[in-house]
């Protein structure tokens, strides 16, 4: 190993895979090509999506914009996980997205300025001792 067989020089080129430059060029070409694709190529297949339904009873009344946002969130969840969910789980998700949207509307109504301090901050319940106790090892007795 004295001749440097096992060591690789930092400037040595890798022969497998692609270089960072090749990756960047390919990524730029792919993004440029995507800009010229017709819009219907990237459109979501509406047949696979559930039609918008009336929210289940017991959910809060939402404005049309909020209902559209809740429906969009529900459709996004179904698009990603719909094949793994049962009908009961889908109903729960629809109900929960409506409840979440109501909470989001309440949060969005709060007016905040950039300089407002947080309402809560971390305050430990237990104060630490300034000098930690050092445990000494107890010698064991040999029999």
Terminal-residue CA separation:
53 Å
Q: What's the overall geometry?
A: extended
Mean pLDDT: 76
What Rg, in angstroms, do the CA atoms define? 30 Å
Count every beta strand, where a strand is a DSSP E run of 2 or more residues: 0
Structural class: mainly alpha
The percent range for strand residues is under 5%
Biggest β-sheet strands, sense, barrel = none
Helical residue percent band: 25-40%
Count of helix runs: 3
The ordered string of helix (H) and strand (E) elements is HHH
Point out poorly predicted stretches. Answer: none
Short description:
The chain has 143 residues and is mainly alpha-helical. 40% of the residues lie in helices and 0% in strands.
Describe this structure as you would to a colleague.
With 143 residues, this protein is an all-alpha fold. It has a domain at 44-108. It is built from 3 helices and no strands. Helix 2 packs across helix 3. The protein is extended.
Topology at a glance:
Layout (H helix, E strand, L loop, with lengths): L19 H16 L28 H18 L5 H23 L34
Helix pairs in contact: 2-3
Any key phrases for this structure?
single chain; 143 residues; mainly alpha
């Amino acid at each position: 190993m004295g001749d440097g067989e096992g060591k690789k020089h930092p400037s040595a080129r890798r022969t497998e895979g692609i270089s960072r430059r090749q990756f960047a060029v390919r990524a730029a070409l792919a993004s440029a090509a995507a800009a010229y694709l017709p819009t219907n190529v990237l459109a979501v297949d509406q047949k696979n999506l559930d039609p918008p339904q009336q929210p289940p009873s017991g959910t809060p009344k939402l404005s049309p914009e909020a209902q559209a946002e809740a429906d969009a969130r529900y459709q996004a969840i179904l698009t990603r996980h719909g094949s793994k969910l049962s009908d009961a789980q889908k109903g729960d998700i629809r109900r929960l997205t409506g409840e979440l949207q109501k909470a989001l509307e309440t949060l969005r109504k709060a007016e905040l300025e950039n300089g407002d301090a947080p309402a809560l901050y971390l305050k430990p319940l237990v104060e630490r001792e300034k000098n930690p106790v050092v445990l000494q090892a107890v010698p064991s007795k040999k029999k």
